Amino acid sequence: xxxxxxxxxxxxxxxxxxxxxxxxxxxxxxxxxxxxxxxxxxxxxxxxxxxxxxxxxxxxx
Length: 61
Description:
Layout lengths: L7 H20 L3 H29 L2
């Protein structure tokens, strides 16, 4: 089996995508609400990751 190597950013994106899908499926009733909520939560995850990344960058400077 080939070995898959992910950097921290790639692993975070995959985690955010999977969690957003699960949250959309579990919390909403219609398909359109699920899709909208999944996209919105994925965007929030990305904003949080980039925001925390910049905070760490300036904190270690």
